[in-house]
């Protein structure tokens, strides 16, 4: 193979760019790997961690507490105030995700056209207002309608977190950062339980559940205003980076970094996403994980109260549940980082197993053993670490801006489907044991384990095929010579187009 071709293939793998000086001679820029290992780059990453991740973490906390507030309200008189009958409470839980489902793809397209940070802030501000309006509902119909609107507004949240993470961080850095903000699911459960406990003591003209919606709604809107004016969209617009730091923040990602800010919608990438088996493995994983989430967020408090605890004590017992989520997510993200090749699927499976055991315990242990049942309920929260791993698998294994947006949209459609199914698996006439719901959780855990194994096998096979393809290209290019600038490095390639893309599993 000629030296020029060898250098070109090497530049593709390391993400090098080149420029030309005044004499039109190729002049290499420093590789993204070298930049990433510099002291300046490490300082820039620390700045990004301090100025970007906290926004995602707090927003994640606020939006989850908003959703979980329905479950807390259920033990503080919501059902009686709205005179809910039969499956109407399950409909309130599921209707949120009908709104989410209806607006998921439109909001994903909007985020390719509108700055993500601004779109997220506006939606969160409106979300807070609608949450406060829930306190004024007098019946099932009005509450149901507002729950649909809430789902529509929140449809941008988690996709926005993933896009922001992909914009600022390299593929190797993303799992840790996703792990950081996903731990706030645990903080949100603990904070929500503590908030519900505190608000539950308010004695006033309104019902305790009404005060809960008013307080969390006001917090959401206030945070949205602050975020709108302070969260930077991308490195080039960050006021807290100087010009040198902005350049490093961009260059360290590499020319082929698939978190780049591409606004053009490419139809061929949508088609590639639709026919990519990984898309549908992610889709099924989303359903499996969110059947459990839909159950826990809407019926968790009712499950605990069914063990024989009072309303206020029930809210306090959500705090350890949140702490288990926090410990699980933090430990999972560092374990996958330390393992050779990261082994994200293996780590995800390891954290599904305690949740599976916990659900089995709830299903089989006698109601006389309240503490054992409570511990089993807390164990069911470890599955959240697997959800964080799955989200990191999506960002790490999907190249191309339009393809990534499409895969995210498909995944969050499954997110909605799972959360719609989850509440309906809990039948009112089975309270407080909710046998069908617990069995649905057991099945979902088993399906998730199978899907993670299938993804790992498929990704390994695709990597082997790509290695063989690159070796074939290298043989075909032997003897080719010519100026390097005639063979430019392409940007915004999909993982299927890029022969040097390697899948993480």
Automatic annotation (TrEMBL):
Residues annotated as signal peptide: none
What sections of the protein cross the membrane?
A: 52-77, 89-107, 119-136, 148-171, 178-199, 211-232, 280-304, 316-335, 347-365, 371-394, 406-426, 438-461
Q: What is the membrane topology listed in the Swiss-Prot or TrEMBL record?
A: Multi-pass membrane protein
Does the keyword field hold Transmembrane helix?
Answer: yes
- Does this entry carry the keyword rRNA processing? no
Q: Any idea which UniProt keywords this protein has?
A: Membrane, Transmembrane, Transmembrane helix, Transport
GO terms for MF: transmembrane transporter activity
Name of this chain's protein: Major facilitator superfamily (MFS) profile domain-containing protein
Source organism per entry reads Penicillium steckii
């Amino acid at each position: 193979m000629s030296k020029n071709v060898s250098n070109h293939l090497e530049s593709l793998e390391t993400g090098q760019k080149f420029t030309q000086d005044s004499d039109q001679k190729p002049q290499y820029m420093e590789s993204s790997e070298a930049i990433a290992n510099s002291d300046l780059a490490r300082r820039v990453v620390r700045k990004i961690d301090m100025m970007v991740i906290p926004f995602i973490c707090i927003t994640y906390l606020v939006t989850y507490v908003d959703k979980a507030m329905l479950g807390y309200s259920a033990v503080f008189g919501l059902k009686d105030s709205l005179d809910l009958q039969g499956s109407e409470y399950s409909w309130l839980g599921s209707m949120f995700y009908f709104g989410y489902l209806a607006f998921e793809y439109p909001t994903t397209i909007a985020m390719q056209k509108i700055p993500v940070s601004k779109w997220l802030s506006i939606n969160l501000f409106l979300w807070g207002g609608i949450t406060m309006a829930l306190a004024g509902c007098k019946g099932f119909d009005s509450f149901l309608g507002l729950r649909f609107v809430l789902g529509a507004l929140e449809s941008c949240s988690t996709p926005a977190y993933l896009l922001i993470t992909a914009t600022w961080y390299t593929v190797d850095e993303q799992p840790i950062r996703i792990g950081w903000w996903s731990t706030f699911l645990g903080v949100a459960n603990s904070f929500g339980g503590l908030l519900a406990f505190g608000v539950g003591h308010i004695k006033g003209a309104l019902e305790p559940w009404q005060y809960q919606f008013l307080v969390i709604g006001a917090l959401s809107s206030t945070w949205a205003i602050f975020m709108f004016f302070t969260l930077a969209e991308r490195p080039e617009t960050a006021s807290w980076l100087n010009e040198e730091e902005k350049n490093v923040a961009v260059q360290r990602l590499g020319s082929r970094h698939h978190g780049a800010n591409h606004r053009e919608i490419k139809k061929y990438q949508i088609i590639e996403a639709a026919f990519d088996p990984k898309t549908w493995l992610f889709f099924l994983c989303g359903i499996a994980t969110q059947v459990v989430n839909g159950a826990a967020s809407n019926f968790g408090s009712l499950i605990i109260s069914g063990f024989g605890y009072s309303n206020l004590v029930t809210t306090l017992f959500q705090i350890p549940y949140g702490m288990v989520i926090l410990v699980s997510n933090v430990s999972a993200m560092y374990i996958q980082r330390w393992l050779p090749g990261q082994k994200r699927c293996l780590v995800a499976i390891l954290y599904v197993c305690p949740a599976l055991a916990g659900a089995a315990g709830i299903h089989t242990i006698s109601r006389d053993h309240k503490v054992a049942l409570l511990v089993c309920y807390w164990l069911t929260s470890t599955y959240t670490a697997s959800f964080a791993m799955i989200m990191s698998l999506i960002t790490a294994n999907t190249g191309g801006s339009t393809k990534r947006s499409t895969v995210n949209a498909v995944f969050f459609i499954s997110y909605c489907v799972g959360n719609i199914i989850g509440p309906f698996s809990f039948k009112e006439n089975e309270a407080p044991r909710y046998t069908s719901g617990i069995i649905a959780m057991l099945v979902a855990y088993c399906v998730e384990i199978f899907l993670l194994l299938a993804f790992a096998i498929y990704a390994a096979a695709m990597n082997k095929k790509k290695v063989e393809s690159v070796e074939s290209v290298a043989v075909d290019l032997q003897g080719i010579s010519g100026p390097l600038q005639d063979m430019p490095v392409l940007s915004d390639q999909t993982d299927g187009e890029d022969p040097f893309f390697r899948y993480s599993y």
